[in-house]
Amino acid sequence: MQTFPGKPKDKNLVYLDHAATTYTDPRVVEAMLPYFEGIFANPSGLYAIGREANGAINDARRTIADILHTLPDSIIFTGGGTESDNMAIFGVAHKYADKGKHIVTTKIEHHAVLHPCEQLEKEGFEVTYIEPDSQGFISPKKIYQALREDTILVSVMYANNEVGTVEPIADIGREIIKWRKDHATKFPLFHSDACQAAGALELDVEKLHVDLMTINGSKIYGPKGVGILYKSRNIQIQPLIFGGGQEMRLRSGTENVPGIVGLAKALELAQADRQDENMRLVDLRNYFWDKLQHAIPKIRLNGADLGNELVRLPNNLNISILDIEGEALLLYLDEYGIVCSTGSACTSDSLDPSHVLLALGLPYEYAHGSLRFTLGKRTTKNDIDYVMSYLPGIVEKLRQISPVNLEEDPNKNKHPKYHQR
Amino acid sequence: MNDTSQHQGAKIRDKQGNSWLYSDIVKDHFFNPRNILLYGQEDSYQADASGRVGSPACGDEMVLWLKIDPQTEKITECKWQTFGCGSAIASTSMLSVMLTENGGMTLEQALKIKPQDIMSRLGGLPNRKIHCSVLGDKALQAAVNDWFRKMGKHDRVITTGAKVIDEALHITDHDIEEAVLEGAKTLEEVQKKLKVGAASPESIPEIEQLIRFYSEKYYGESFI
Question: Which residue among the candidates A117, A195, A340, A346 is catalytic per the annotation?
């Protein structure tokens, strides 16, 4: 039988899973280092090194507030993106349950938003999940139409982690403001998970019209385990964590000083060169897609059109390779040092394929064969060429041992199991 | 229903289902699959029998081709193709080896192979991958039935009738087995998997009993 492409003598590590997490930028590490051993004190301490640690947090808060075009007291430091999302959703729901028990979100949110919503449904809330179009866009009009008198919160992600679609957050924000004016109410509040967007897109909360926004460190070359929740000064939320009253009594627990300093540094660096970096990544990503299309038959792009970072994150390439399964492909690529992710069921706990790809209307068999490549600051053209020297051969081999031969037109394929139900 | 006592030998790696740890044997069969029939050579191979199970929509599809000695009913050759993840490919590869090693199994012996036997030979599979070895077992049964039919031995065709547990929701014992294999551990999770609403109160005890049965059968413990 045909063998796999020969293994490289020098196996490169080509990391193309930056949407999962990024390495920590050495400049960020450098900024963090003083706060592990030298300035280690509890920021609540009244003595000099306590005040110094507290000062570092305040500086970080101001840096981030400037980037978000807001005031420092609207920045709450948390233990990461998941916590910030949970805090926003439960925080609003539990604070304002007497105003209404209806929430509007989308089918393509991260589980850090979807699972809190499911939990709230168990607590008696009602949640409307808006469907995206086939490219992953959420229509602002659809959001408006879903609003009700008892809607207290809308949560829509800024950019999708799987297919990179950038949602029209400012337009959705304007629709929500229009609803509030039409109905003379201050509800619903508007939350956006900006974890994937923070490194590439503008974060001005005034322009985005958000009341709450999630950002974390681990997607922007910052530290893991630290995030922020932007919270407009005009609204209140119920805390998730009670204790010593840190973070304006909204998030108790001794502050993660090195993490907070690192997050501020990371966000500063990312925002400073995002425009140049976006252009570089768009070119590189499009070069990759061009090569893939020519080298591999029966392959399709999932999500929005390429070429414009305003509709699709510049580093995201999500594809389906027909007739083979994503996990098998991922494991083979790993043998060659190539790291990416898949929306295949086989890599999820539930054994269901990616909820995002299914929400885009992709048939199950296409979702099972999906691969997500997310490029990063250190990704070069050489890396892409390295991938291209092995990926087509691996695909060819896996297709030879597969009994499946799908039609490229999804409508021509039958999927019996799921039609029964 | 299978006797659960004979499955104790199968090691289940990673009960929590958190790790991707594959045994060296799984990796070997995944990266060097045995007894493949290359795509496009199906017709020229002239198999005596074949069985196809699964679908690409479900994430796994498998075809098994057998050559069988009609006198001895021994499997002389077994070839296969699989669309699926690493453990699905490794499971089929291992099954093909088990069927044909030491001069080949008789059909009677082959039909006694259980998913757990394939898993044992692979040195265990991660918890959430157990359904991959089940698929091989089903493909084998389909291929053997194909042969029985071709030989006119219709009395030997194995039929496993599904028993309807909840009339209103059309849930059968097979549905519950599939749901458990796909990771559902509780009544709520089974309902979510099967995309059905609440079961009727009178059928809940039987559904829970089946969840317990299949959980113990495939995972060695029940969670409800």
Answer: A346
Query: How many pairs of residues across A and B have Cβ atoms under 8 Å apart?
Result: 102
Q: In B, which residues are within 8 Å of A406 by CB distance?
A: 56
Beta bridge partners of B64: B51, B80
Q: Which residues contact B74 (CB under 8 A, 6 or more apart)?
A: B68, B103, B104, B105, B106, B107
| Residues of B belonging to the active site | 58, 132
B-chain CB neighbours of A416 within 8 Å are 55, 57
Chain A residues in contact with B38 (beta carbon < 8 A): 1-2, 400-401
Structural domain tally of chain B?
2
- Nearest Cβ partner of A403 from B81, B85, B86? B81
Q: What is the pLDDT of residues A230-276, one digit of tens each?
A: 999 999 999 999 999 999 999 999 999 999 999 999 999 999 999 99
Q: Which of B156, B173, B193 is the last residue of a domain?
A: B156
Per the CB < 8 Å rule, is A351 touching B62?
no
Same domain, B74 and B184: no
User: Which amino acid appears at position B126 of this protein?
Assistant: P
| Claim to verify: residue B182 and residue B152 sit in the same structural domain | no
Q: Which domain holds residue B210?
A: 164-219
- Alpha-carbon span A190 to A417, nearest angstrom: 39
User: Could you tell me if residue B224 is inside a domain?
Assistant: no
Of B83, B183, B195, the CB nearest to A325: B83
Among B189, B191, B186, B180, which residue's Cα sits nearest to residue B218? B180
pLDDT digit string (tens) for A24-75? 999 999 999 999 999 999 999 999 999 999 999 999 999 999 999 999 999 9
Identify which of A331, A346, A404 has the shortest CB distance to residue B56: A404
- CATH code of B137's domain: 3.90.1010.10
Buried b / exposed e over A37-64, threshold 16 CB at 10 Å, is eebebebeeeeeebebbbebbeebbebb
B180 and B145 together in one domain: no
